[in-house]
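INPUT
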Amino acid sequence: MRAGVISTPHGDIETPAFINVGTKATVKALTPEMVKSLGAQAVLANTYHLYLQPGNELVKKTGGLHKFMNWDGPMYTDSGGFQVFSLGSGGSKISGPTPNPSPKERGENIDSGRLNLEHQKGSTLSSPSLVKILEDGVEFRSHIDGSKHFFTPEKSMQIQHDLGADIIFAFDECTSPTASYEYQKEALDRTHRWALRSLAEHNRRSDLRQAGGPTSDCSPALFGIVQGGRYQDLREESAKQIASLDFDGFGIGGSFDKEDMGNAVRWENEILPENKPRHLLGIGAVEDIFLGIENGVDTFDCVSPTREARNGAMYTKHGRINLMNAQYREDLTPIESECLCYTCRNYTKAYLAHLFRAQELLVYTLASIHNLYFFVNLVKNIRRSILEETFFDYKERFLQAYQEA
Amino acid sequence: MRAGVISTPHGDIETPAFINVGTKATVKALTPEMVKSLGAQAVLANTYHLYLQPGNELVKKTGGLHKFMNWDGPMYTDSGGFQVFSLGSGGSKISGPTPNPSPKERGENIDSGRLNLEHQKGSTLSSPSLVKILEDGVEFRSHIDGSKHFFTPEKSMQIQHDLGADIIFAFDECTSPTASYEYQKEALDRTHRWALRSLAEHNRRSDLRQAGGPTSDCSPALFGIVQGGRYQDLREESAKQIASLDFDGFGIGGSFDKEDMGNAVRWENEILPENKPRHLLGIGAVEDIFLGIENGVDTFDCVSPTREARNGAMYTKHGRINLMNAQYREDLTPIESECLCYTCRNYTKAYLAHLFRAQELLVYTLASIHNLYFFVNLVKNIRRSILEETFFDYKERFLQAYQEA
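OUTPUT
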């Protein structure tokens, strides 16, 4: 495990750090000022979603994502790969528009860079009939209107350069953990060829920017993505290949079973160069964060804090509680008495439970603030424990209390 | 017209003022800090809604509305009368719970103290078969679960004292403007008897509080409500009767046709004592605000700024625009270039249009901030024009530009 600093044109990120997901150029239900004041250092937006709506060209025209969404801190975009495979079948088995898409069909449940396998039941990873994978790239359908699109590594670079984040990712194929060894190997080789093409296109575009002279904006940093499923030799092969290329950092991808994740991360991080940052894509369970950091991960992103918040599930140091439970209806204490977030400093569970029952919009804001604060500060505390060399004590104490509930 | 100051235990309100509606103990989609920073001076919550959910006893237990919802400024509650008549038939013609109530059935479209008639199509004002009006009070059904309830003037006072606002209203009957003269007269006489009972119960409860000694909290101010439909003699009779009682201020009630409102307000304000504040219930059209102030109104409340905002309709000095229109999709300017609200200082129409299309929660916050800022500041500017004796100039210039669109 390690503590460090990632420097970007929009500021530093002290690591380990939890990166807030802002799928469609907004951290759901929060103003950028709220995101900042809960302690968040960076935001990760989704390439697939923004390409479809409102379109990368429009975002570029407005001056890039930072200006578009009014976030002046460090920003990531993902490669679009994961969503293409999970959402890119047009939302359901139809080829035309879906008149009344369900929340899942609208992509609301799968809006992060990656997701833990347990959240993917019903996704189309295992039925990719409408997603066509070719050597050149991937053909998919919009989950919004069923229209057909084609992503290549070059296209992903173009979109991400248009969006203008500080840290972007190479285009990859995110395989199902149930895929066979043979398929994982085939996909991995393709992902490596796509990594080379992503890097070449990124360098070409960065050179063009620099040629634009001092008025041109900064080029983003490009992270390569390591894949390989649950197989040690594939994970190691992937890490070696990606590490040998001139990437600025690395993303660790894949849909993980709980057990696989720690291993995959360890195998890879023993190979990846120490002086470059490592981002674990789409992971956000409390135990997994400890596990990732213990095995050398620097940053994480995950939609679960805000998604859970909108369902009334609040993280506390004793585990999750659901504010819709009858017992909180008249509870005059905050979600957590010692919590210093805006929500806990100002509101009781009874008030939040009332707002949830009344479906009042404000509660999605208040609940999201608490859950994001929980994760951002958990990782900050872990950072402190690393610097103070008390990580294992902290981990043990934290997980003991957390699992008690 | 006049400019003044209303002093409450939670601060002063400079009048004329636009009071923000916070139906269910929240100004929809906004934190109290946002409400304050857009310049709002006070919030009006709804007695009927809070009685049903989460219940006035719970609010009392938490220390009252101010503490419950984290608003430390001046606060009003209405009498519950209007909602009992408009929502109190159980949401529809059923007597049991509604499993999937429509937004209208949930009361989302009728959540203010009063509404302009043009918003009331389909309301139950003209089909009160499930609302029983008796001399003692009104029997109605919850729009949430169809359960039966009975409001009396005493009950309204009890609920409002429990909620603990600074300014509360006497229980009244809000008649339909299509009601006959005979019915208006009958209802008015009943409202006057209810005013006496409201006042007696309010005084009894206030005396009990004072007897509680210096540790007891402040008693609210009680406003009597003037009714009388479109009839000059009834409006004048009502104003005389209510003015003769020891109320701290007055509410002007009724469902108005555009034309009726100016007259009703003028007739009444010529009779109501000059030294007490006058609140025009549920009125919020730009023209009506000028008309009300011109005829002696001090304060207004209306849900339309936030409700319109959630539908994408934004107020500008040239009239309303709808952000869902295709022309704004790539519009890189704010809603109004000269507007100083948080939303206009930080976001383009293109961004807001994107969020509306993506149904992102943040947009309901950003749009509501702009619309409330528009109204709060319109009334502030009117106040300034009164002090500078340029009201009629300001009105003419404003309405000329506003109607051009």
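end of record. The first helix of chain B runs from residue 32 to 37.
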